[in-house]
Write a structure and sequence with these properties.
Recoverin, domain 1; two-stranded antiparallel ribbon; 5 helices
Length: 107
Amino acid sequence: MKQPARWFWVALVLVLAVGIGLASAQTEQGARGGPMLKCQERFEALDVNRDGVVTRDEFMAVPHPGGHAEEIFRQRDLDGDGKLTKEEFCSGKGMGKGPGKGRMGQY
C-alpha cells in the first residue's frame, strides 16, 4: 500500500515543478518587454517624452520587425499630423503581424 502512495507524491512534485518552471518563464518573458506587453504599454514605451503622442522620430528610434517602420507609421497616422495618438497606435491598422487589433509583432 505504501508503494502507490509514494508514486502519487513523486508525480505531484513533478507536476508542481513543471508548473512553477512554466510560470517563471512567462514572467521573465514579460519582464523583458517581449510579446507580453500590451498595445498601450508599447505606446507608453515609445512615448519617450511622455506628451501623450508618439512622434515619427520616437517611432523610428526603435527597431521594427520586418523593417517597414515608415510605412507602418504612415498607415497608423490616420489624420496625417505626423504624430500617433494612443488610439491611432492601437487601432490595428498597418502592416502588423499577429492576430487581432493593435498587434504589430513588437511595435
